Amino acid sequence: MDLARTRELTYKRKIEVINRLHQLTILGKLPRGAFTSTATHFNLHRTNVSKIWNSYSTNSMMPSSKLGRVGRKEVYHVETVTARIAVLPETQRSTLRDMIETTGVPTMSLHKHLKTGTIQRRSSRLKPLLTDANLLQRLAFCGHVYIVKGQSVRNRACKSKRFIPKVMFLAAVARPRFDHERGVMFDGKIGMWPCVKYLPAARNSRNRATGTLVTTLVNVEGELYRDYVMTRVIPAIKACFPSMNKHVVLQDDNATPHRVITDELLASVSTDGWTFVVRSQPPNSPDLNVLDLGFFASIQALQYKFESHSVDDVIRATLAAFALLESEKLVDAFLTLQAVMRLVLENNGGNQFGLPHLGKKALRRTGKLMTNVSCPHHLV
């Protein structure tokens, strides 16, 4: 018998076999030899006809039995992903990118398990330390971390948000460029300095002895800002900033303490061929501040990976994040600034536009990232 050589029957072919068998049915039963005659009619084996009929009798829809038994085998099972993520510290699973790097699980596999619920995004709420006197004084300070099923977010408590120290930093950055004098690439990072003072402890305590230097937070006022710019920022620029003409423009925002820096004051440090001038960004224009266009977000994303319990921990974590920041982030921030400036020109100085997305990562991967954002002549 010359039987059909197809690997499997189509759904349409199976329906034809079922219809043929229905025609042979007598009083709801198949007569003897029905499978054999049908197999001969369709050039099939009798066993195949029998399997089709039995499958139809069980479920008239005849669903495919291949589901779950064919295709690529799953490499990263639920148990594997759960085990890898469960052993990670929380500082290494605050973002999917961190988990991809630390677990080795591919991006698509991790997204699949996030969609199916193997891993879940949860928020960690910082609440006041509850006492009988302040049960109603609840404060929520949210962080987020990814957890696996069965895990719970640890409880964090603080008596009041007023007791959470806030450390101010002064950061100076420039656009990365090649330093022809040194023959190396300048990463764009001038420096970052915490606005603190180190004062000796006035009395003994269980935490420190008298005279131990204690990191003390200070208010950033005009006098302090002037001191930091003149004694820290300017020397750092002269030491590491590559410039052919040594003409440097300092840009800051319009905060009141920053107004103490003037061109006349900078003239006193414009020595050794260097010339310093200051230009403040326009009022109500945070979108023209390169620090707000990706620098702060990049620093914060790195700083959150370090767990801090004191002011010194925050300072160390922030300075470490500044050191780890890739120069590509600053390149992207300056390109975004140029794109925003072009939109400002297109809108006649207005701000009726969203932040532009240039697809810089994709362009960099393909080697097509622009050096500068182009601007039409009629806008200049």
Automatic annotation (TrEMBL):
A GO molecular function held by the record: nucleic acid binding
Q: What InterPro entries does this protein's entry cite?
A: RNaseH_sf
Sorted alphabetically, which PANTHER family does this protein's record hold? OS01G0541250 PROTEIN
What is the protein name for this chain? Answer: Transposase Tc1-like domain-containing protein
